[in-house]
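User: Could you walk me through two proteins back to back? I'd like the raw sequence and the structure tokens for each, with a short line separating them so I can tell where one ends and the next begins.

Assistant: Of course. Protein one, sequence then structure:
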Amino acid sequence: MPARAHEDDAGLDLRADCEVFLRPGQRFLMPTGVRMRIPHGHVGLVCPRSGLAMKHGISIVNAPGVVDAGYTGEVKVNLVNLGERAVMLRAGERIAQLVIVPVDMRPVRTVERLLSTERGDKGHGSTGVK
């Protein structure tokens, strides 16, 4: 059962449902044994656990993963070992956190022209690094 480690934590801890030995660079779709219904108008975001990432280089390939309100299958976590050493993940270990947030469900509209903004179409790296 997903649970918060502390009362004020945003994320519900998700646990590994099996044991896996992850080599550097290896990915694994980890089952959690959790099936749930996200409330309408909300989304579940599957996020990495900071300690697992910092200590072992374990992250989530598609972070954050999305669990839509209409999905009722098992929540699985697409793990990757970005570290330099192999890591053993055991069943029951906390591997990710699920943050449930409201989402704007207004319909998308097609428009002829976009209003101009100060930023315009400047993207990826356009503001520099300082």
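----
Protein two, same layout:
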Amino acid sequence: MTDTPIAQRRASTAPVGARRRVVVLVGLIAAVVVSIVISLSFGSRPVSIPEIVDGIGLWLRGETASDIGALAVQSRVPRTVLALLAGAALALSGALMQAITRNPLADPGILGVNTGAALAVVIGIAFLGVSSGFGYLGLALVGAFVTAFFVYFVGSVGPGGTTPIKLALAGAATTAALSSVVSAILLPRQNVMDEFRYWQVGNVGRADWDTMAVIAPVLVIGTVVALLCASSLNALGLGDDVAVGLGVRVGRIRIVAAVAGVALCAAVTAVAGPIGFVGLMIPHAVRQLAGSDQRWLLPLSALGGAILLVLADTIGRVIGSPGEVEAGIITAFLGAPVLIAIARRTRLKAM
């Protein structure tokens, strides 16, 4: 039997003790540390803890490792850092999108934002000769914002206005169409297919410090803006009328939070390609553990997203050795059942 909307809202806003939230916070921080160690330890060649310490020490001193174990660690450090940043940003973006739309299916991947950003970058590389990190970032931002606007417009057409399932269907259709365009651009260019392949599924294996430095300001600003919006998003979750009564400027907070969420997603896509489902899975998991208070949900989601993507990248390297399975494939494999479960639990009267 399907719960009523009132029952669902009460369940989702049930109070969670501060002690439990602190325990979840400490547990996630510890899990981040463990995931970093796992990422540096496993791959095509397992590395011991002493080799990790030696490799990181040499890297911090700017020295090149001669031992193969330490060399492996140094090669894994950039992709581990990118996985941490990308996972945190995608989960935070998903949490923001779910909060501002009150849509449990909202996610940068499901709504097509990732693919729109990737398509813009691929067009820039293939036809405009773009080759710099700043160029990638600018194109990704344009593609992400245009796609987000288009999907929201399509999802609001028809009786009932915008509904979770209409947004999800509009996003899925848009993603399929844009992915086809990406493939059409890449397939005739076999000489660069390997270079562009990660624009189709998402991967952190091409991490480099220069590109990460380009997107870092966007990630920092987007994260700060998201956290500053947390209290207003709590009020927004009670309904627009209640939020207005509490002094929240509903339209402004939606725009600001949406811009932050799309910018976070676009910045990640500019360097890692379209990685889906992180922004869907993690906020729901955190909500079950620590409640719906956005002041806790947003930072905890960022930690959870970092853990998920680091482990997804590690799993892909281990099972695909001596090659690798892209992290985007691993997250899609994990996220598809979650999407189905959430969709089945969502009341879809608008259908």
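The domain at 47-350 is CATH 1.10.3470.10 (ABC transporter involved in vitamin B12 uptake, BtuC).

Let me know if you want the two compared in more detail.
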